[in-house]
Amino acid sequence: MTPRRVIAFWAAVVGFLFLIEIAELTRLFTLPLLSALGNLISFIFALVFTTILALVGAVFIGIYISQRMQSAGGFTVFEEEMLRMRSDVQKLREDVAELRQSLEATSGPTEDDPTRREAR
How confident is the model over 69-101, as pLDDT tens digits? Predict the structure, then answer.
């Protein structure tokens, strides 16, 4: 089965169960409690069926969560852009440091040079 069919099937099952729950809440159909408890086999079947569905759902949710946690996800687009910007800033710093060194080498320190300290 294709994933779309599986999703459609489970969406239909959940929708059907939702409609049954709405019918129960609006008292569209009622089943007396004594007749449900009186037929012990149908009560046990309903209890076991509900338990099995709950366990299967919990297993599938656990598989999905663990797969998402263990999958090797790459960087998001935002993180990639931030890494590019960081490398650009580092390159600009290196370029400015090279320019500063070349200017100091050609002209020597000036009076405006903040790195030069004078005793006053």
Answer: 777 777 788 889 999 999 999 999 999 999 999
User: Domain limits at 18?
Assistant: 1-30
CB 68 within 8 A of CB 60: no
Cα dihedral value 21, 25, 29, 33, nearest 10: 90
Domain count, the chain: 3
Tell me, yes or no, if the pTM score tops 0.85: no
Q: For 108, phi and psi rounded to 5 degrees?
A: 80, 170
Residues ≥6 apart with Cβ < 8 Å to 75: 83
